[in-house]
Structures are given as structure tokens and as C-alpha cells.
């Protein structure tokens, strides 16, 4: 049953220009390590020519000399025995330099000149800083900030000064009440004043006796021939025992 199918499977032929075959070949080319390094391998077979005075060679040599510990210590090794036998430490440049650096780093010596001269400061009275401090003190001083009205700091005959004086006289409480000075000490009765009359009117409005009139105080006269009076008299006569 399967003999024909097995024989047919071995005879299948796929065309080489189908999209799947082309895609598979392209993928194989992209992932091939041999093709990836083929250009590099061919360049290595050709060799290279680099001269000794090329800029990269000189840069590498300079970097190597700088990084070399031997080149770094070469000057020190040459100068090791040159300073042996100095008569004193002051004659040795290295020791003198170290002493100078130590003196500069010493805090007491660093502040010695300042401590000696900080109590000997003489500032002239017309220095800019002193003048600025005085001006600042005048600005923040409450005494100089307040200028009383009678202490004029401008010409008295200026128009704005005259106008200010007139406005001040109009607003002054003393000038405002000066016309009432002649009334001071004169006797005066409160009867007839506005406050007294107002109090009396308020009392009259609140007085219950004046507001309401009692019935017994009203003058009333009954009519003798009114229907209700005549009826009352007739009823009285009919009910009288006499």
C-alpha cells in the first residue's frame, strides 16, 4: 500500500528559483561566519606597510615612554647622589623647598602676620567704605527718617510749600477747633439741646399712659330710644314682680 508513496517521495524535485529557496540561500549567506570574515582574511594575506615615523607609531611610543616606570624615575635616579655632603639644610634646594612648603602649610605661621596687624588698622575718615556705612546708617536711622512738619528742609516761599502749609492748617485739629475757644468756660443749660429734645420725644413715644386711654376716662352717653334699650326696658317690665 505504501510502496508507491515511498517511491514517489524519492523522486520529488524542487525548482532552485522558488522564493523559499532564495530566502534560505540569503539567510545562509548572512549567518555564514566564513563569508563574514572573508574580506578580513584576504586583507591579512596581502600584508601591510607601516613606517617607523608614522603618527600612530610615534603616539604609541610617546605614550609608552610616559607610562613607563623606568622613564618616570630616570631623572630621580640620576639626581640621587648629587646632593650628598651639603654643609647645612639651608644649602640643599630640596630641603629648603620642603621647609618653605611646610611653613606655608603651617596654620600658626600662616595667620601670624594677620594676628600681628589686626589691632593696628587705621582707616581714614573719608574712606569710601566709611562714607557708605554712614549713608546706610542715615537711611536706616529712625531719627533722620522722621522729619517733623515744623522742620522745613526746603525754601519757605515755594508754591508747593505754601500749599502744603495751607493744607496742614486746614487739617490741623488745633486750627479746626480754634473758633470754639471763646466758648470755653461759658455756662450752658442742656434744656432745649438736641439730645435732650430727642430723649423727651423718645420718652413720649414709649410712655404707656399717653399711648393708651382708659375706658373710664372716656365721656359716653347712651341713647335712650335705641332699639336695644327699648327692648331691654320692655323685658324688665315683663319680668318685674311689682
Automatic annotation (TrEMBL):
One of its GO terms (biological process) is cardiac muscle thin filament assembly. Keywords: Actin-binding, Repeat. It comes from the Eukaryota. GO terms for cellular component: Z disc. InterPro entries: NEBU/NEBL (IPR055297), Nebulin-like (IPR013998), Nebulin_repeat (IPR000900). Pfam families: Nebulin. GO terms for molecular function: actin filament binding. This is NEBU protein. It comes from Chloropsis hardwickii. The lineage of its organism: Eukaryota, Metazoa, Chordata, Craniata, Vertebrata.
